[in-house]
Every structure is written in C-alpha cells, then in structure tokens.
Fold this sequence. Notes:
Elements: H1 3-15, H2 18-30, H3 35-55, H4 61-79, E1 91-96, H5 100-115, E2 119-124, E3 127-128, H6 129-139, E4 143-147, H7 154-167, E5 174-178, H8 181-184, H9 188-191, E6 196-197, H10 201-210, E7 237-238
Helix pairs in contact: 1-2, 1-3, 3-4, 3-5, 4-5, 5-10
Amino acid sequence: MSEPLLIRYLQPLLGGRRSECFNLIHEAIANGWAAERLIQDVVWPAMAQVDRLYRDDRINAAVENMACRINRTVADQLQAHLPKLPPNGKCVLVACVAEFGEELGAQMVADLFQADGWQVCFIGGNVPHDELLSMVGELRPHVLLLFGAGPQAVPAVRGLIDLIRDIGVCPTMNIVLSGGVFNRVDGLWREVGADAFAGSAHDVLALASELPPREPNAPRLGIVKKRRRRRRRTAPKLQLETARTPARL
Length: 249
C-alpha cells in the first residue's frame, strides 16, 4: 500500500527537508516502485494535501511554496523513469492556471500522457485566447485539458469554452476539466460547458483514452443557450490565473 510511504513523505515535505524527500523517492525507485505509481499515489496526493492545508489556513505561504517546489523537483526526477510507450496517434493540449502548485499538477498529467504514447503540448497558463485557438486549429488535438482553475477563474473558463464552440475550431475535440475548484464543486464542469471531468491524474488519463471524438454540434452539458445580440469579438487573454484571496471554496 502507498499510504505509509505517503505519510513518510508528507512529514519532511511540510518541513521543507528536501534531501529527506529525495532520498525517500530514490529508495522507493530502488525497491521496485514504478515511477507512474509514485506520481499517482505519493506526489499527487501530497500535492493535494498541501493545497488543502493552505486553503484551510493550516500552513502558510512559505510552507506551501517549499512543498510545491520539492514536489516539482521530485516530479521532474520521476519523469525520466516513466515508461515510453509507442505513439498512439492521439494528441492532448494541456493548459492551466499560472499558479505554481496548479502548474505542477498539469505537468504531472502531461508527463503521464506522454509516457502513454500521446503527443503532448503543455502550454501552461496566461495564454491569450487567440493564441490558444490558433494552436488548437494547428494541432487538431483529441483533447484540450484545462487544469486547476480557481473560483475567480470560472468565468474565464466558461468564456474560453464558449469561444471555442462558437467559432467551431476543431469541433470533434473534447474539452476536459480537472483540478482546482472543479475538484471541489460537484457538477461545476457541466455548468461551464465542458465535455468531461476527472479528478485525479489516473482518472484523467483513463478518461481521455476512452473518450470517442466529440460529435460536432453536440449539445453542451448544463448549458442553456440564450438569444443575445451579436457583438464584435476581441481577443481576450486566457486569464485562468488568479491571485489568491482569503475566501477559498
């Protein structure tokens, strides 16, 4: 079971003891743990626990920053140990908020997709809508994964999905949400018009692998279209990044 290792890892992680964390992971690799399992069962839940503790004001920003950066280094080291399956002909485009902790989660998901044979483009956050749309049109990905939005970013996510669907770029592409507020509020992914949701790294990969191509002009879940005046569009930014506020969902 991974729980004892997770507990052993969390203690030095929250204490900022880098070498102790690195040694635990190196020992686990030497003892036969698969890198994929360490990401999914140790580093990922540790990342989620750090986020919960910070949102509950049980740790401060300094502790969160230390833990996130240790996890980032561990994830970078584990990436080299992941299997390299043959290309499966599928492509995923991964975007996220600009916060360090959320980018770490998106990076781990991107690493797992790549190990599974997917072509992965990881663009991070703070990307203008027109540039993201251009990349979608160029890559024609099977999945657009939006990871880690906070409560303040929900309108931006909804606006981005509206824009993608209204313009009709890559209509067979599924838009999948994961992480952030979408992990904490049941059904919110439907309200913003996404095609699917998964709450963990393992679930995201399994879901994306099983999703059939989206039906063009398929009705959007949870969305009631209203008649509205036509107006000239501008090119807004992908403002998924938001500053933390004391009020957290």
